[in-house]
């Protein structure tokens, strides 16, 4: 009675776990037009109408078996797009994902389909239909990487890609855990029930997790062949304790094969191998052994040093008969053709026994598109038309990119181009755009986008930006002008405001900004301020250089002069601020000064020389000219400037500098200047070849070139300097 109630409790527990498991099953009958419950399993199947909007429902010709879910299939368009089913998952929970394919007899089609199946960005399988009546089942055991997965079909080689069913089966938390699940899915290559009672595969409800256990009686090419002689099939109706690790179904464990002649050997092909695999062997002693009987054996082939020397004694290893013993191999490398054999040890009385095996390939999880880029695409989708959104399924880049994006070939892939011209987008450009560092082209023109530009300062690869014909506002940030690779920026017909960053107007970037009424170029005043600032800095730099040069020159000079006897004289002259005869003469003929450099002559000295400007010898627009005689007897012409151009000291100085350096046969040499009390005076050499009168009025044999003309020429030359 105690035992009975114990079993009852176990049975109820088992039942409740099964029930809770089933409610979480997702079973999609692709191509079906209605939802239904399969009476043979009690499983609820839903139509994929509303889940998959592409392709068409096709009635399968001559389906094999009576499975309701194989009466129809969904044929998907033959093009270069991908078609994806999105399945909701719990992140980090383990699932069995299964896609099945039964094509049925060929109708008018020329050939059976061949295409690719993806789970997220990971290539899952190449589906090749060779047998119309066979159900090709592809299973992947995953730990969900996020809150949903995408199963995608694409890349048809021949025929029309299609799918019959898509199933999601949650697993118990600890089932199929591996050391590598962060980076690898487990792609099921073989799951075989040995000693099966029929050739039908065993699955739900016999397996509460709805795994498909193929029968070893199933005769199909390259599947479980070459049983050794003496192999017998055994079965039991007794319960088997299987509640450890992978929870193989009791029904699978109730049958087995035994190598009565001491050897069990089989051969089968593993799709996509050689590869690293996770391998399980399921053993349960289902024969009642006599007291003198023992069953001990070893895995002889394939030979793995770590495993093959271990002796299997099922009842001992499992601590009892009718109890699961499940040795597994976390990471073994297997060939495409898996030949395996168990051989009894010498001291064993019975041959080896095997209930089931399961082999899965480690499938490297391929990187999905950088999530920050995906976030922007999702945000853009959310502000676009409903009708435009439906075709964008699965990963934006892998295996084939969405129509409106271009991707890099990096790992993970990044979005390099967004092309959404004229797609009826309404709202703001997603601010997350700031993280799309790989973006080179952005086409959002011809929409109804509003609000300011998002921060694009980090999008340094950006080359072409089309934002014209929107309702964008705000200012153009100055970094827009310094994006290093920007070639084109189109913002016509928007409502941008403020100043255009000057760098956009240099011609380096094709910049189109018509019809932004409140957008203007930088104001003149600011530009001039900047120009002046720039020039001033330039001038300062030049002055600094000149100053340093002159320091060097002066030092050299001083050294040179100190070597000469004339040191004292020259030094006193050079440092003297008082103009004097000697200063004048040295200025005119000194060997260490540039010839023609004019000198400052104080006003009192000029007043004295000209006798208080009493003798006017000419007058012009520039002012009057007076005759004078310096202390040393030199005759001079003194011009008092009246020109407004010369008002500013700077310009006056410039003119002096210019005139003092011009050597022209028609020009009178400038010998000095005076600038005092708003008076600006130039002192020229008085002409001695011929009197002034001669020059002014002309002589018989010389073209008259008057003094005033000469001064005018000089003055005009100087005036060029004054012009802004
Ligand atoms: C999952 O496995 C644990 C033991 O690891 C067991 O206690 C639990 O009942 C199992 N749950 C289901 C739903 O099978
Ligand atoms: C099938 O069931 C799903 C979910 O239970 C529902 O969304 C869908 O509308 C149903 N489809 C039909 C054709 O009844
Ligand atoms: C199950 O085993 C019994 C012997 O224990 C045998 O008579 C019977 O034929 C077996 N059934 C099948 C389907 O192999
Ligand atoms: C398995 O073992 C091989 C070599 O022993 C190692 O390279 C590999 O990373 C391991 N894991 C997987 C999942 O392949
Ligand atoms: C093996 O089973 C016996 C009872 O059949 C039990 O007493 C013993 O603790 C078990 N040993 C282990 C290691 O589970
Ligand atoms: C801006 O709008 C005007 C009229 O609305 C249109 O003619 C012009 O082509 C638009 N500019 C661009 C660049 O599309």
TrEMBL record:
Gene3D superfamilies on file: Ribonuclease Inhibitor, Transferase(Phosphotransferase) domain 1
Domain Protein kinase: 611-724
Subcellular location: Membrane
GO cellular component, one term: membrane
E.C. numbers: 2.7.11.1
Database matches in SUPFAM superfamilies: L domain-like, Protein kinase-like (PK-like)
Extent of the signal sequence: 1-20
InterPro entries per UniProt: Kinase-like_dom_sf, Leu-rich_rpt, LRR_dom_sf, Malectin-like_Carb-bd_dom, Prot_kinase_dom, Protein_kinase_ATP_BS, Ser-Thr/Tyr_kinase_cat_dom, Tyr_kinase_cat_dom
Membrane-crossing residue ranges in chain numbering: 531-554
Catalytic activity of the protein: L-threonyl-[protein] + ATP = O-phospho-L-threonyl-[protein] + ADP + H(+); L-seryl-[protein] + ATP = O-phospho-L-seryl-[protein] + ADP + H(+)
UniProt record similarity statement: Belongs to the RLP family.
Protein name per its UniProtKB record: non-specific serine/threonine protein kinase
Organism: Citrus sinensis (Sweet orange)
Lineage of origin: Eukaryota, Viridiplantae, Streptophyta, Embryophyta, Tracheophyta
């Amino acid at each position: 009675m105690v035992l009975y109630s114990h079993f009852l409790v176990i049975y109820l527990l088992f039942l409740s776990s099964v029930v809770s498991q089933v409610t979480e099953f997702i079973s999609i009958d692709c191509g079906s037009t209605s939802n239904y419950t399969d009476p043979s399993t009690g499983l609820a199947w839903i139509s994929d109408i509303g889940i998959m909007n592409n392709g068409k429902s096709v009635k399968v010709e001559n389906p094999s078996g009576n499975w309701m879910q194989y009466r129809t299939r969904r044929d998907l368009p033959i093009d270069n797009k991908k078609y994806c089913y999105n399945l909701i998952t719990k992140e980090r929970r383990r699932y069995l994902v299964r896609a099945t394919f039964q094509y049925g007899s060929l109708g008018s089609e020329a050939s059976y389909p061949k295409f690719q199946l993806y789970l997220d960005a990971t290539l899952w399988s190449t589906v090749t239909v060779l047998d119309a009546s066979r159900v090709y089942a592809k299973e992947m055991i995953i730990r969900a990487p996020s809150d949903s997965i995408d199963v995608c079909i694409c890349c048809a080689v021949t025929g029309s890609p299609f799918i019959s069913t898509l199933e999601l089966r949650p697993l118990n938390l600890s089932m199929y855990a591996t050391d590598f699940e962060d980076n690898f899915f487990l792609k099921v290559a073989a799951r075989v029930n040995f000693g099966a009672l029929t050739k039908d595969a065993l699955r739900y409800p016999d397996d509460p997790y709805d795994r498909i256990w193929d029968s070893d009686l199933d005769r199909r090419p390259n599947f479980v062949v070459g049983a050794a002689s003496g192999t017998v099939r055994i079965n039991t109706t007794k319960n088997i304790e299987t509640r450890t690790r992978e929870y193989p179904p009791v029904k699978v464990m109730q049958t087995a094969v035994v190598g009565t002649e001491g050897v069990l050997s089989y051969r089968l092909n593993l799709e996509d191998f050689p590869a690293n695999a996770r391998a399980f062997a399921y053993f349960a002693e289902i024969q009642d052994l006599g007291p003198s009987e023992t069953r001990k054996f070893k895995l002889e082939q394939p030979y793995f040093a770590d495993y093959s020397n271990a002796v299997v004694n099922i009842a001992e290893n499992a601590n009892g008969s009718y109890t699961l013993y499940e040795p597994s191999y976390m990471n073994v490398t297997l060939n495409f053709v898996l030949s395996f054999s168990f051989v009894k040890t010498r001291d064993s009385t019975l041959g080896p026994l095997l209930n089931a095996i399961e082999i899965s390939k480690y499938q490297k999880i391929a990187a999905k598109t950088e999530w920050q880029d995906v976030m922007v695409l999702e945000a853009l989708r959310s502000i676009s038309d409903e009708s435009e959104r439906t075709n964008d399924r699965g990963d934006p880049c892998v295996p084939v990119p969405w129509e409106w994006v271009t991707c890099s070939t990096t790992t993970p892939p990044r979005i390099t181009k967004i092309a959404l011209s004229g797609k009826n987008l309404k709202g703001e450009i997603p601010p997350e755009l700031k993280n799309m560092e790989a973006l080179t082209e952005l086409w959002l023109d011809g929409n109804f986008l509003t609000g300011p530009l998002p921060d694009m300062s980090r999008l340094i690869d950006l080359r072409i930006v089309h934002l014209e014909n929107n309702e964008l506002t705000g200012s153009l940030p100055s970094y827009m002008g310094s994006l290093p690779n920007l070639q084109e920026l189109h913002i016509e017909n928007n409502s941008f405001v403020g100043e255009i960053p000057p760098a956009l107007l240099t011609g380096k970037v094709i910049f189109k900004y018509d019809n932004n009424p409140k957008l203007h170029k930088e104001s003149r005043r600011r530009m001039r301020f900047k120009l002046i600032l720039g020039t001033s800095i330039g001038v300062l730099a030049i002055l600094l250089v000149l100053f340093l040069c002159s320091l060097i020159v002066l030092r050299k000079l001083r050294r040179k002069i100190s070597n000469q006897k004339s040191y004292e004289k020259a030094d006193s002259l050079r440092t003297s601020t008082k103009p004097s005869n000697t200063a004048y003469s040295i200025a005119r003929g000194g060997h260490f000064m540039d010839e023609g450099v004019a000198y400052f002559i104080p006003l009192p000295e000029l007043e004295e020389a000209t006798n208080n400007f009493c003798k006017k010898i000419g007058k012009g627009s520039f002012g009057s000219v007076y005759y004078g005689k310096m202390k040393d007897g030199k005759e001079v012409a003194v011009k008092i400037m009246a020109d407004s151009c010369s008002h500013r000291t700077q310009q006056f100085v410039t003119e002096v500098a210019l005139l003092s350096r011009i050597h022209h046969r028609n020009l009178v040499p400038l010998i000095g200047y005076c600038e005092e009390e708003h008076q600006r005076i130039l002192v020229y050499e008085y002409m001695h070849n011929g009197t002034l009168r001669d020059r002014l009025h002309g002589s018989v044999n010389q073209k008259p070139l008057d003094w005033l003309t000469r001064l005018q020429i000089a003055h005009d030359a100087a005036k060029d300097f004054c012009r802004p």
